[in-house]
Specification:
Layout (H helix, E strand, L loop, with lengths): L2 H4 L2 H38 L4 H6 L5 E9 L8 E9 L11 E7 L10 E8 L2 H6 L4 E3 L6 E3 L14 E7 L2 E2 L8 E4 L1 H8 L5 H5 L11 H12 L3
Parallel strand pairs: 6-7
Antiparallel strand pairs: 1-2, 1-4, 2-3, 3-9, 4-7, 5-9, 7-8
Length: 229
């Protein structure tokens, strides 16, 4: 009797469907992140503590939306979360297809008692957008970062490459991303677009076939970033 004949049927089925199931899981994860990013952007636009964010979104060259920044999200207690980057199109004023990233840091200093928060990072300079075309960057080293102000706020450092905003349990958190690492999620990008693509393929070369699932998020960003303060 051959080895294949004695192999349990369940194991054979797992080996045969494993890659397909993994791809389906990645597609599902990617779509969930898009849905959550849309909800997070809506929360920020409706939050009176985020007036500065809303009034300066039109000046941003891109956004990085992290719907859930969690304590202990990674091994050894490192905090982090998954999100998407969209860059503004120079000619149309619209927004690119989303690129999936993950962020991690030793500590984001979440508020006492807060296990998670949601974050949006305004990408303020072309240099900052370009830096995200690399597989991995470190904020503070590969681009300057500042914490966005609460409410209307005093004018923060618009010379910074990245301006960060966070909300924890519906409250303004003011968490610094200085020292945080941002890495592209190539497996999610490939699953979502059905092809092997890198961040530059999506944002600069426009090689990725548009996915209708992100249309609502792009439209919301376009509306929010063109509205008068």
């Amino acid at each position: 009797m051959t080895k294949s004949a004695t192999m349990p049927a369940a194991l054979i089925a797992l080996l045969l469907c494993g890659p397909g199931r993994a791809l389906a899981d990645d597609i599902g994860d990617a779509k969930n992140i898009i849905n959550q990013a849309e909800a997070t952007l809506k929360n920020f636009m409706n939050d009176p503590d985020m007036k500065w964010f809303g009034s300066h979104l039109q000046e941003a060259k891109g956004v990085y939306i992290v719907p859930k920044l969690t304590k202990g999200a990674f091994i050894f207690g490192v905090e982090g979360g998954n999100g998407v980057v969209l860059a503004r199109e120079d000619k149309s004023g619209g927004w690119s297809e989303p690129v999936f990233y993950e962020t991690s840091a030793a500590s984001f200093g979440l508020q006492a008692g807060a296990q998670s928060s949601e974050a949006v990072v305004l990408i303020m300079t072309p240099k900052a957008v370009d830096s995200l075309m690399a597989n991995k960057i470190k904020l503070g080293a590969d681009g300057s970062v500042a914490i966005g102000p609460k409410g209307g706020g005093a004018d923060t450092n618009l010379a910074a490459d990245f301006v960060t905003f966070t909300r924890a349990k519906g409250l303004y958190a003011g968490v610094s991303f200085d020292g945080a690492s941002i890495r592209s999620r190539d497996e999610l990008n490939a699953a979502y677009y059905g092809q092997d693509v890198r961040p530059s393929d999506i944002i600069i070369a426009h090689k990725a076939k548009p996915n209708s699932h992100s249309k609502s998020l792009q439209t919301m960003l376009t509306t929010a970033s063109t509205a008068k303060p």
